Amino acid sequence: MGYSSVDSVKRILRVLDSSSNNQYKVRMSDSYDLPESYSSNSGDIGLSGIDTISSSYAGSEFWSIKFTSSTGFTLYRGEGETLEDGTGSISSTFTSTSGIIKISSDDWYGTAAAGDKIKFRTSSNISEDDADEFISDADAVIDGILNKVMEISSLPKRIPTLIEKASMYLSANLIFQSVFSNVNTDNLPAIVRRWHSFAIDLVNSYLEGISGKALAKYSRYGRFQSREPLFEKVGIDEASGIEGFKGEVDAVNEEYDTDYNNKESLGAT
């Protein structure tokens, strides 16, 4: 399971829908133009929408439905009526032969006559399955950052909000760059470029938020685990030579320090 979902990433990408430059719109498998009945139809049959489009599908294609009776129809894929993709009835759920299109019986309204037609167009430029793979790629990048400081297995079972958001924004950035790979990086919409840096900032904010609290427990490296116990055992505020700390090491009468105290006394005489 990823840190985020395809639906949550869609929410981030949806901001591009309202952009003045609509050429940068990312459309996933379930994107299509609403079905439209032909004006030449004898009946008033209509289709309110497509129930499901396969998550593995991506493409911009013309589809048409032609009724062979008041209830039966044939789905054609592409312009013209040469490539059949299954036959069905308005009284039951229909799944195309290709498995791409699924129409629910609840989506039909009105009455059909033989010869009536309905058309629609699928309009996706990336499949949801591919988008899910990009989420995995984004999560791998996030794990790489986290793994420098903590064991990934130490993350709470409930995905932290900052990590989930980081995955959403980084995934959106990777998906956009894949769909519009021909666009020069300098010409990417400013908001898309910010998604990457914002995602990294969110991961760093998460790490900073647990610093000094649970970070020592999660830490991969011994120096994080041992620093606090060292201070407690020696009993000093400052230690010379430890990661930039400055100060004098005071002699103490702990058992482990006995030899040091003796040498110091001898040196003094």
Spans where pLDDT lies below 50 across 5 or more residues = 221-231, 245-249
How many β-strands, per DSSP? 10
In N-to-C order, the SSE pattern is HEEEEEEEEEEHHHHHH
Across the major sheet, the strand order is 1-10-4-5-6
How large a portion of the residues is in β-strands, by DSSP E? Answer: 15-25%
**Which bin fits the share of residues in helices?**
25-40%
Number of helices: 7
Rounded average pLDDT: 83
What is the radius of gyration? 31 Å
| Largest sheet descriptor | 5 strands, antiparallel
Q: Count the domains.
A: 3
Instruction: State the end-to-end CA separation.
Output: 69 Å
Shape: elongated
SS-derived structural category: alpha+beta
Annotation keywords:
alpha+beta; 7 helices; 10 strands; 3 domains; 269 residues; three-stranded antiparallel sheet; five-stranded antiparallel sheet
Overall description:
This protein is α+β, with helices and mostly antiparallel strands and 269 residues long. The protein folds into three domains: 6-23 and 128-218, no CATH class; 30-123, no CATH class; 228-268, no CATH class. 35% of the residues lie in helices and 16% in strands. The chain has seven helices and ten strands. The strands form three sheets. A five-stranded antiparallel beta sheet has the order 1-10-4-5-6, with no helix packed on it. The chain has a three-stranded antiparallel beta sheet with strand order 3-8-7, with no helix packed on it. Strands 2-9 form a two-stranded antiparallel sheet. A hairpin with a 5-residue loop joins β7 and β8. α3 packs antiparallel against α4 (190-210). The termini are far apart.
